Task: inverse folding
Protein backbone atom coordinates (compact mmCIF):
# COMPACT_ATOMS: atom_id res chain seq x y z
CA UNK A 1 0.00 0.00 0.00
CA UNK A 2 1.22 3.51 -0.71
CA UNK A 3 -1.06 4.89 2.00
CA UNK A 4 -0.18 5.11 5.70
CA UNK A 5 0.57 2.35 8.20
CA UNK A 6 -0.55 4.52 11.10
CA UNK A 7 -3.57 6.79 10.93
CA UNK A 8 -3.44 10.16 12.70
CA UNK A 9 -7.02 11.25 13.41
CA UNK A 10 -6.61 14.68 11.85
CA UNK A 11 -7.80 16.31 8.66
CA UNK A 12 -4.34 17.56 7.66
CA UNK A 13 -3.02 13.99 7.72
CA UNK A 14 -5.94 12.87 5.57
CA UNK A 15 -5.44 15.66 3.03
CA UNK A 16 -1.71 14.96 2.82
CA UNK A 17 -2.60 11.35 2.08
CA UNK A 18 -5.01 12.42 -0.68
CA UNK A 19 -2.17 14.40 -2.26
CA UNK A 20 -0.07 11.23 -2.49
CA UNK A 21 -2.75 9.26 -4.37
CA UNK A 22 -1.77 8.12 -7.86
CA UNK A 23 -4.97 7.10 -9.72
CA UNK A 24 -3.04 5.51 -12.60
CA UNK A 25 -0.96 3.31 -10.32
CA UNK A 26 -4.14 2.58 -8.35
CA UNK A 27 -5.96 1.27 -11.41
CA UNK A 28 -2.98 -0.88 -12.37
CA UNK A 29 -2.15 -2.38 -9.00
CA UNK A 30 -5.07 -2.06 -6.56
CA UNK A 31 -5.72 -5.80 -6.41
CA UNK A 32 -2.19 -6.52 -5.20
CA UNK A 33 -1.54 -6.47 -1.49
CA UNK A 34 1.38 -4.14 -2.10
CA UNK A 35 -0.53 -2.14 -4.70
CA UNK A 36 -1.13 1.61 -4.69
CA UNK A 37 -4.35 1.67 -2.69
CA UNK A 38 -5.01 4.91 -0.87
CA UNK A 39 -5.47 3.98 2.81
CA UNK A 40 -8.05 6.78 3.12
CA UNK A 41 -10.82 4.67 4.65
CA UNK A 42 -10.44 5.48 8.40
CA UNK A 43 -10.68 9.21 7.69
CA UNK A 44 -13.59 8.79 5.29
CA UNK A 45 -15.53 6.53 7.68
CA UNK A 46 -15.20 9.00 10.51
CA UNK A 47 -16.07 12.03 8.41
CA UNK A 48 -12.72 13.80 8.72
CA UNK A 49 -12.86 14.04 4.94
CA UNK A 50 -15.69 13.22 2.56
CA UNK A 51 -15.78 11.73 -0.90
CA UNK A 52 -16.84 14.86 -2.85
CA UNK A 53 -13.93 16.87 -1.48
CA UNK A 54 -11.47 14.00 -2.02
CA UNK A 55 -12.60 13.76 -5.63
CA UNK A 56 -12.47 17.54 -6.15
CA UNK A 57 -8.96 17.70 -4.70
CA UNK A 58 -7.77 14.82 -6.88
CA UNK A 59 -9.26 16.50 -9.93
CA UNK A 60 -7.02 19.52 -9.37
CA UNK A 61 -4.15 17.26 -10.48
CA UNK A 62 -5.72 14.39 -12.43
CA UNK A 63 -8.40 13.92 -15.07
CA UNK A 64 -10.86 11.61 -13.38
CA UNK A 65 -14.26 10.41 -14.54
CA UNK A 66 -16.73 7.64 -13.84
CA UNK A 67 -14.72 5.20 -15.97
CA UNK A 68 -11.69 5.49 -13.68
CA UNK A 69 -11.23 2.61 -11.27
CA UNK A 70 -10.66 4.83 -8.24
CA UNK A 71 -13.89 6.73 -8.89
CA UNK A 72 -15.91 3.54 -9.25
CA UNK A 73 -14.40 2.20 -6.01
CA UNK A 74 -15.48 5.41 -4.29
CA UNK A 75 -18.82 4.57 -5.88
CA UNK A 76 -19.00 1.28 -3.96
CA UNK A 77 -19.13 3.22 -0.71
CA UNK A 78 -21.88 5.42 -2.12
CA UNK A 79 -23.75 2.30 -3.23
CA UNK A 80 -23.49 0.57 0.15
CA UNK A 81 -24.80 3.69 1.88
CA UNK A 82 -27.60 3.97 -0.67
CA UNK A 83 -28.55 0.35 0.11
CA UNK A 84 -28.19 0.99 3.86
CA UNK A 85 -30.51 4.00 3.69
CA UNK A 86 -33.17 1.85 2.09
CA UNK A 87 -32.63 -1.33 4.11
CA UNK A 88 -31.96 0.25 7.51
CA UNK A 89 -31.25 -2.47 10.06
CA UNK A 90 -32.15 -4.94 7.31
CA UNK A 91 -28.42 -4.89 6.42
CA UNK A 92 -27.84 -6.90 9.61
CA UNK A 93 -29.88 -9.89 8.34
CA UNK A 94 -29.81 -11.88 5.07
CA UNK A 95 -30.89 -9.55 2.26
CA UNK A 96 -31.45 -12.54 -0.02
CA UNK A 97 -31.87 -16.22 0.92
CA UNK A 98 -28.63 -17.99 1.91
CA UNK A 99 -27.31 -21.07 0.09
CA UNK A 100 -30.01 -23.72 0.66
CA UNK A 101 -29.33 -26.52 3.11
CA UNK A 102 -26.06 -25.12 4.52
CA UNK A 103 -25.78 -24.96 8.33
CA UNK A 104 -23.72 -22.02 9.57
CA UNK A 105 -22.36 -21.57 13.07
CA UNK A 106 -23.08 -18.42 15.05
CA UNK A 107 -19.57 -18.52 16.51
CA UNK A 108 -16.23 -17.66 14.95
CA UNK A 109 -13.92 -20.62 15.76
CA UNK A 110 -10.98 -20.04 18.09
CA UNK A 111 -8.34 -21.03 15.52
CA UNK A 112 -9.61 -18.30 13.21
CA UNK A 113 -9.78 -15.73 16.02
CA UNK A 114 -6.27 -16.73 17.11
CA UNK A 115 -4.76 -16.71 13.62
CA UNK A 116 -3.82 -20.40 13.69
CA UNK A 117 -5.94 -21.91 10.91
CA UNK A 118 -2.76 -23.00 9.13
CA UNK A 119 -3.72 -21.07 5.97
CA UNK A 120 -1.02 -18.36 5.73
CA UNK A 121 -3.24 -15.92 3.79
CA UNK A 122 -5.85 -16.09 6.53
CA UNK A 123 -3.62 -16.11 9.60
CA UNK A 124 -1.51 -13.18 8.37
CA UNK A 125 -4.70 -11.21 7.64
CA UNK A 126 -6.10 -11.79 11.12
CA UNK A 127 -2.80 -10.69 12.68
CA UNK A 128 -2.75 -7.56 10.48
CA UNK A 129 -6.33 -6.77 11.47
CA UNK A 130 -5.40 -6.84 15.17
CA UNK A 131 -2.01 -5.11 14.72
CA UNK A 132 -3.09 -2.22 12.48
CA UNK A 133 -6.90 -1.99 12.36
CA UNK A 134 -6.79 -2.02 8.57
CA UNK A 135 -6.83 -4.65 5.82
CA UNK A 136 -6.45 -4.56 2.06
CA UNK A 137 -9.73 -5.25 0.25
CA UNK A 138 -8.47 -8.61 -1.01
CA UNK A 139 -7.62 -9.74 2.51
CA UNK A 140 -11.11 -8.78 3.68
CA UNK A 141 -12.62 -10.79 0.83
CA UNK A 142 -10.41 -13.80 1.53
CA UNK A 143 -11.27 -13.72 5.22
CA UNK A 144 -14.98 -13.45 4.50
CA UNK A 145 -14.99 -16.23 1.92
CA UNK A 146 -12.86 -18.56 4.03
CA UNK A 147 -14.92 -17.95 7.19
CA UNK A 148 -18.33 -18.36 5.55
CA UNK A 149 -17.75 -20.96 2.87
CA UNK A 150 -14.73 -22.87 4.20
CA UNK A 151 -15.54 -22.79 7.90
CA UNK A 152 -19.32 -22.38 7.77
CA UNK A 153 -19.42 -19.37 10.08
CA UNK A 154 -22.57 -17.28 9.68
CA UNK A 155 -21.52 -14.06 7.95
CA UNK A 156 -23.19 -11.93 10.66
CA UNK A 157 -21.07 -13.33 13.50
CA UNK A 158 -17.84 -12.81 11.58
CA UNK A 159 -18.86 -9.38 10.25
CA UNK A 160 -19.54 -8.19 13.82
CA UNK A 161 -16.09 -9.45 14.85
CA UNK A 162 -14.29 -7.75 11.98
CA UNK A 163 -16.11 -4.43 12.12
CA UNK A 164 -15.10 -3.91 15.76
CA UNK A 165 -11.40 -4.23 14.95
CA UNK A 166 -11.34 -2.06 11.83
CA UNK A 167 -10.42 1.62 12.13
CA UNK A 168 -12.69 2.16 9.14
CA UNK A 169 -15.42 -0.18 10.42
CA UNK A 170 -18.61 0.90 8.69
CA UNK A 171 -21.74 -1.20 9.10
CA UNK A 172 -22.94 -0.45 5.57
CA UNK A 173 -19.70 -1.28 3.74
CA UNK A 174 -18.70 -4.08 6.08
CA UNK A 175 -21.90 -6.02 6.63
CA UNK A 176 -23.04 -5.68 3.02
CA UNK A 177 -19.59 -6.76 1.79
CA UNK A 178 -19.78 -9.83 4.03
CA UNK A 179 -23.21 -10.52 2.57
CA UNK A 180 -21.82 -10.00 -0.92
CA UNK A 181 -19.15 -12.64 -0.23
CA UNK A 182 -21.68 -14.95 1.44
CA UNK A 183 -24.04 -14.69 -1.55
CA UNK A 184 -26.91 -13.05 0.35
CA UNK A 185 -26.32 -9.67 -1.30
CA UNK A 186 -25.07 -11.01 -4.66
CA UNK A 187 -26.00 -13.72 -7.11
CA UNK A 188 -23.34 -16.26 -6.07
CA UNK A 189 -20.84 -16.98 -3.30
CA UNK A 190 -17.43 -15.29 -3.62
CA UNK A 191 -14.69 -17.95 -3.76
CA UNK A 192 -10.92 -17.68 -4.05
CA UNK A 193 -8.18 -20.24 -4.54
CA UNK A 194 -4.49 -20.57 -3.70
CA UNK A 195 -3.51 -19.34 -7.18
CA UNK A 196 -5.41 -16.08 -6.55
CA UNK A 197 -3.42 -15.54 -3.34
CA UNK A 198 -0.13 -16.44 -5.05
CA UNK A 199 -0.86 -13.90 -7.77
CA UNK A 200 -1.84 -10.94 -5.58
CA UNK A 201 0.09 -11.74 -2.41
CA UNK A 202 3.00 -14.12 -3.16
CA UNK A 203 4.33 -13.59 0.38
CA UNK A 204 1.14 -15.22 1.72
CA UNK A 205 1.09 -18.17 -0.72
CA UNK A 206 -0.89 -21.02 0.82
CA UNK A 207 -0.07 -24.17 -1.20
CA UNK A 208 -1.38 -27.48 0.05
CA UNK A 209 -4.08 -25.89 2.24
CA UNK A 210 -7.88 -25.98 2.03
CA UNK A 211 -7.91 -23.25 -0.61
CA UNK A 212 -5.48 -25.12 -2.87
CA UNK A 213 -8.20 -26.78 -4.95
CA UNK A 214 -10.25 -26.12 -8.07
CA UNK A 215 -13.09 -23.61 -8.15
CA UNK A 216 -15.49 -26.50 -8.81
CA UNK A 217 -14.38 -28.13 -5.55
CA UNK A 218 -14.57 -24.84 -3.65
CA UNK A 219 -18.07 -24.24 -4.97
CA UNK A 220 -19.15 -27.78 -4.05
CA UNK A 221 -17.75 -27.31 -0.55
CA UNK A 222 -19.54 -23.94 -0.19
CA UNK A 223 -22.88 -25.53 -1.08
CA UNK A 224 -22.56 -29.03 0.40
CA UNK A 225 -19.54 -29.26 2.67
CA UNK A 226 -19.19 -28.77 6.43
CA UNK A 227 -16.60 -26.88 8.47
CA UNK A 228 -13.26 -27.67 6.81
CA UNK A 229 -11.50 -27.12 10.15
CA UNK A 230 -7.95 -25.83 10.66
CA UNK A 231 -5.14 -27.43 8.64
CA UNK A 232 -3.81 -29.08 11.80
CA UNK A 233 -3.72 -28.16 15.45
CA UNK A 234 -1.25 -25.32 15.99
CA UNK A 235 -0.50 -22.84 18.76
CA UNK A 236 -2.29 -19.51 18.65
CA UNK A 237 -0.32 -16.84 16.78
CA UNK A 238 -2.46 -13.91 18.05
CA UNK A 239 -4.97 -13.14 20.77
CA UNK A 240 -7.96 -11.03 19.74
CA UNK A 241 -7.73 -7.64 21.45
CA UNK A 242 -10.82 -6.99 23.59
CA UNK A 243 -13.73 -5.11 22.09
CA UNK A 244 -14.94 -2.33 24.37
CA UNK A 245 -18.33 -0.66 24.77
CA UNK A 246 -16.70 2.59 25.87
CA UNK A 247 -13.38 4.41 25.44
CA UNK A 248 -10.59 2.62 27.36
CA UNK A 249 -9.02 5.69 28.98
CA UNK A 250 -11.85 8.05 29.80
CA UNK A 251 -15.05 6.15 30.56
CA UNK A 252 -17.61 8.91 30.41
CA UNK A 253 -20.62 8.40 32.62
CA UNK A 254 -24.06 9.35 31.41
CA UNK A 255 -23.67 12.95 32.35
CA UNK A 256 -25.76 15.98 32.93
CA UNK A 257 -25.70 18.27 29.96
CA UNK A 258 -23.81 21.61 30.14
CA UNK A 259 -26.01 24.71 30.38
CA UNK A 260 -26.93 25.33 26.76
CA UNK A 261 -29.79 27.80 27.18
CA UNK A 262 -29.87 30.20 24.24
CA UNK A 263 -26.99 28.45 22.44
CA UNK A 264 -26.80 26.97 18.97
CA UNK A 265 -25.73 23.39 19.57
CA UNK A 266 -24.03 21.05 17.14
CA UNK A 267 -24.13 17.38 18.11
CA UNK A 268 -20.90 15.75 16.93
CA UNK A 269 -20.95 11.96 16.65
CA UNK A 270 -18.21 9.47 15.72
CA UNK A 271 -18.97 9.58 11.96
CA UNK A 272 -18.61 13.34 11.57
CA UNK A 273 -15.50 14.34 13.50
CA UNK A 274 -15.27 17.90 12.18
CA UNK A 275 -16.09 21.16 13.89
CA UNK A 276 -18.70 22.89 11.72
CA UNK A 277 -18.27 26.48 10.52
CA UNK A 278 -19.99 29.10 12.72
CA UNK A 279 -20.02 29.53 16.44
CA UNK A 280 -22.26 26.68 17.63
CA UNK A 281 -21.41 24.93 20.85
CA UNK A 282 -20.08 21.54 19.77
CA UNK A 283 -21.31 18.76 22.03
CA UNK A 284 -19.67 15.41 21.25
CA UNK A 285 -22.11 12.58 21.86
CA UNK A 286 -21.69 8.83 22.35
CA UNK A 287 -24.97 6.92 22.15
CA UNK A 288 -24.25 4.18 24.68
CA UNK A 289 -26.72 1.52 23.38
CA UNK A 290 -25.02 1.54 19.97
CA UNK A 291 -21.58 0.97 21.46
CA UNK A 292 -22.84 -1.81 23.70
CA UNK A 293 -24.19 -3.50 20.62
CA UNK A 294 -21.16 -2.85 18.38
CA UNK A 295 -18.09 -2.60 20.62
CA UNK A 296 -14.73 -1.32 19.28
CA UNK A 297 -11.07 -2.11 19.80
CA UNK A 298 -9.03 0.25 21.99
CA UNK A 299 -7.22 1.38 18.82
CA UNK A 300 -10.49 2.41 17.19
CA UNK A 301 -11.64 4.23 20.34
CA UNK A 302 -8.36 6.15 20.57
CA UNK A 303 -8.64 7.23 16.93
CA UNK A 304 -12.18 8.48 17.46
CA UNK A 305 -11.71 10.06 20.89
CA UNK A 306 -8.56 11.98 19.98
CA UNK A 307 -10.40 13.79 17.18
CA UNK A 308 -13.64 14.07 19.12
CA UNK A 309 -12.10 15.69 22.19
CA UNK A 310 -10.02 18.05 20.07
CA UNK A 311 -12.90 19.19 17.85
CA UNK A 312 -15.64 19.57 20.50
CA UNK A 313 -16.40 21.75 23.54
CA UNK A 314 -17.79 19.01 25.78
CA UNK A 315 -18.41 15.27 25.72
CA UNK A 316 -21.68 13.57 26.61
CA UNK A 317 -22.41 9.86 26.82
CA UNK A 318 -25.76 8.15 27.40
CA UNK A 319 -29.02 7.69 25.52
CA UNK A 320 -29.00 10.21 22.67
CA UNK A 321 -32.77 10.19 22.26
CA UNK A 322 -33.15 11.30 25.88
CA UNK A 323 -30.53 14.02 25.45
CA UNK A 324 -32.23 15.47 22.37
CA UNK A 325 -35.52 15.48 24.26
CA UNK A 326 -33.97 17.19 27.30
CA UNK A 327 -32.10 20.00 25.49
CA UNK A 328 -33.57 23.45 26.26
CA UNK A 329 -36.40 24.40 23.92
CA UNK A 330 -34.65 27.64 22.98
CA UNK A 331 -31.66 25.79 21.52
CA UNK A 332 -31.25 25.26 17.80
CA UNK A 333 -29.74 21.82 17.33
CA UNK A 334 -27.85 20.60 14.29
CA UNK A 335 -26.03 17.39 13.43
CA UNK A 336 -24.61 15.57 10.42
CA UNK A 337 -26.81 12.66 9.33
CA UNK A 338 -25.72 9.11 10.07
CA UNK A 339 -27.29 5.72 9.37
CA UNK A 340 -25.87 4.02 12.46
CA UNK A 341 -28.66 2.40 14.48
CA UNK A 342 -29.84 4.43 17.47
CA UNK A 343 -27.97 7.53 16.32
CA UNK A 344 -30.10 7.65 13.17
CA UNK A 345 -33.40 7.46 15.04
CA UNK A 346 -32.40 9.89 17.80
CA UNK A 347 -31.27 12.52 15.28
CA UNK A 348 -34.49 12.11 13.29
CA UNK A 349 -36.28 13.92 16.14
CA UNK A 350 -38.17 16.91 14.80
CA UNK A 351 -36.00 19.34 16.76
CA UNK A 352 -32.70 18.42 15.10
CA UNK A 353 -31.67 20.06 11.82
CA UNK A 354 -29.91 17.16 10.14
CA UNK A 355 -27.42 18.01 7.41
CA UNK A 356 -27.05 15.32 4.74
CA UNK A 357 -23.76 13.47 4.36
CA UNK A 358 -22.03 14.91 1.26
CA UNK A 359 -22.12 12.48 -1.66
CA UNK A 360 -20.58 12.65 -5.12
CA UNK A 361 -23.32 10.47 -6.64
CA UNK A 362 -27.07 10.69 -6.52
CA UNK A 363 -28.90 8.57 -3.97
CA UNK A 364 -31.88 7.27 -5.99
CA UNK A 365 -35.26 7.09 -4.28
CA UNK A 366 -35.85 3.63 -5.69
CA UNK A 367 -33.39 1.09 -4.28
CA UNK A 368 -30.84 -0.34 -6.72
CA UNK A 369 -30.32 -4.05 -6.03
CA UNK A 370 -26.74 -4.26 -7.30
CA UNK A 371 -23.71 -2.06 -7.80
CA UNK A 372 -24.04 -2.49 -11.56
CA UNK A 373 -27.61 -1.18 -11.53
CA UNK A 374 -26.63 1.66 -9.20
CA UNK A 375 -23.61 2.71 -11.25
CA UNK A 376 -25.60 2.62 -14.48
CA UNK A 377 -28.12 4.91 -12.86
CA UNK A 378 -25.75 7.46 -11.26
CA UNK A 379 -22.46 7.47 -13.15
CA UNK A 380 -23.70 9.58 -16.08
CA UNK A 381 -23.97 12.61 -13.81
CA UNK A 382 -20.43 12.28 -12.43
CA UNK A 383 -18.44 13.55 -15.38
CA UNK A 384 -20.67 16.44 -16.26
C1 LIG B 1 -15.56 -8.23 3.93
C2 LIG B 1 -15.31 -6.75 3.66
C3 LIG B 1 -15.49 -5.82 4.67
C4 LIG B 1 -15.29 -4.45 4.42
N1 LIG B 1 -15.49 -3.55 5.43
C5 LIG B 1 -15.34 -2.23 5.20
C6 LIG B 1 -15.57 -1.28 6.24
O1 LIG B 1 -15.95 -1.61 7.37
N2 LIG B 1 -15.37 0.05 5.95
C7 LIG B 1 -14.96 0.46 4.70
O2 LIG B 1 -14.78 1.66 4.50
N3 LIG B 1 -14.77 -0.43 3.71
C8 LIG B 1 -14.92 -1.75 3.91
N4 LIG B 1 -14.70 -2.65 2.90
C9 LIG B 1 -14.38 -2.13 1.55
C10 LIG B 1 -12.88 -1.99 1.23
O3 LIG B 1 -12.20 -3.19 1.52
C11 LIG B 1 -12.22 -0.84 1.99
O4 LIG B 1 -12.96 0.34 1.81
C12 LIG B 1 -10.80 -0.59 1.49
O5 LIG B 1 -10.02 -1.75 1.54
C13 LIG B 1 -10.17 0.51 2.34
O6 LIG B 1 -8.83 0.72 1.96
P1 LIG B 1 -8.42 1.98 1.08
O7 LIG B 1 -8.88 3.23 1.74
O8 LIG B 1 -6.97 1.85 0.77
O9 LIG B 1 -9.29 1.74 -0.22
P2 LIG B 1 -9.07 2.23 -1.72
O10 LIG B 1 -9.11 1.03 -2.59
O11 LIG B 1 -7.90 3.11 -1.82
O12 LIG B 1 -10.41 3.05 -2.03
C14 LIG B 1 -10.58 4.42 -1.67
C15 LIG B 1 -11.86 4.57 -0.85
O13 LIG B 1 -12.99 4.14 -1.61
C16 LIG B 1 -13.91 3.44 -0.77
N5 LIG B 1 -13.96 2.05 -1.20
C17 LIG B 1 -13.07 1.39 -1.99
N6 LIG B 1 -13.47 0.14 -2.22
C18 LIG B 1 -14.62 -0.02 -1.55
C19 LIG B 1 -15.53 -1.11 -1.38
N7 LIG B 1 -15.35 -2.29 -2.00
N8 LIG B 1 -16.61 -0.92 -0.60
C20 LIG B 1 -16.85 0.26 0.00
N9 LIG B 1 -16.02 1.34 -0.12
C21 LIG B 1 -14.94 1.19 -0.88
C22 LIG B 1 -13.38 3.56 0.64
O14 LIG B 1 -13.94 4.70 1.24
C23 LIG B 1 -11.90 3.73 0.41
O15 LIG B 1 -11.25 4.39 1.48
C24 LIG B 1 -14.90 -4.02 3.12
C25 LIG B 1 -14.71 -4.97 2.12
C26 LIG B 1 -14.92 -6.31 2.37
C27 LIG B 1 -14.72 -7.31 1.25
Result:
Amino acid sequence: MTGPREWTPAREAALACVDRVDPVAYARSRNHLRGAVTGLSPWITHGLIDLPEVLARLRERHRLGAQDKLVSEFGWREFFHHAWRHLGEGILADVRPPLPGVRYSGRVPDDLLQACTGVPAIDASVRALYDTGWLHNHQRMWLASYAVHGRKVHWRAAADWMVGHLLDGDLGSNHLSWQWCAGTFSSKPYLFDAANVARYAPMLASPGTFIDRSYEDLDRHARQGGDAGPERVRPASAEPPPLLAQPPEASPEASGCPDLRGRDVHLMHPWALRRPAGGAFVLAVLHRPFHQRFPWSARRWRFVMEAMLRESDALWCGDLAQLVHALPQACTISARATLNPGYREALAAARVRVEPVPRFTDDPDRPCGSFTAFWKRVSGAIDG
